[in-house]
Amino acid sequence: MRSFVFFVVLFVAPTVASAASMDAPKRKSGLWEIKMSSPQMQGGHIMQQCVDQKSDDLTSGDKPGREKVSCAKNEVRKEGDRIVSESVCKMNGSTATTRAVFNGRFDSDYKADIKSTFEPSMHGMRESSSTMEARWLGPCRPGQKHGDVTMPGMPEGMPNMEELMKKMPKQK
Q: What's the pTM?
């Protein structure tokens, strides 16, 4: 549990779990800035990810270095100009029930409002709400490859997720 990607997966992957009913939108190739904000994350977090549109999969929760997520419900559907994702997934000894609503264009910017409940609580949380805002910055930096994630202002490498989780307020 040491990577920021795991943190995003913890709160976001269940919301964008794959579904056969709809092809998931693919982001434009290049460097994306992703801002995550939530009452549970003091100040929010910004990361940048290098994306290759041909292999981009916003809906996959099973990637190397990520905890296995087992989902009983994975629904992704289009409602007007929005994409709605609903899931019920087991992870980290808890069941996460999540709904996310995505708006925007996946070639330039998009926003997701995400709400999750956890039973039993996960890391002291029974529920979580967050907003993810992403925008395309341009080509990936030289030397970056698909999937590379950086956090501006942080030394190279990922932050210690155990320390970030300790800073989150506990809910009763």
A: 0.71
